[in-house]
Predict the 3D structure of the following.
Amino acid sequence: MKEKYFSYRCPDCGEGVLSLIGRFALSGDLCRLRCSCGKSYADIVTQNGKVNLSVPCPICKRAHNYTLAPTLLLERELFTLGCPYSPDITVAMMGEKEPLDEAAGKESEKLSTLLGAFEADSLSDIQPQDMNDDEILPDPAVYDTIRFLVRELEADGKATCPCGRGSYDFRFTDDGIQVFCPDCGASYEFVATSPEAANGYLSLDEIRLK
């Protein structure tokens, strides 16, 4: 297996955090990756055959939680995780060094463009201020449940789209969560605005994006 790296952008100092990671980090209880500024960190926790990630978001500053199958992280050249509330923003990346570096460069350009559009000097200028999570964001448990389901189906080859190239991304809608393919635009809508409604989809054994 080629060496794998994990990367996220610190929401406090704005610098990218890069760390070599491998099977050893996915076989223990906890691997914590901390920014050199000391103000942020990402956690990788492996339990019951699943990888749980907690990564700070450069835009909304809260820690986003992801649950994935280890094969998704270890077998792909590059795997990215987006912000559920700003789908165009990448929160974390894991993969081989060259494709990860290329993706990180594009992400830096994207953030620079975003800052320019808001005439902002730093990330702190566009991050939410003096608001609690309920005011800023929909219930993250809905997103976590749907993401877990879709990633499980994806790992089993039971999530498909017309172009067949997905990895799939996610965004909030008024009615719940939309799963979409960035390549062909196909999508699948989960009508769920509460954790209970999201849990009702866990019995699905296949989804087809249209």
Q: What stands out?
A: Residues 32 and 43 are 5 Å apart (CA to CA). The radius of gyration is 17 Å. The chain is about 25% helix and 30% strand.
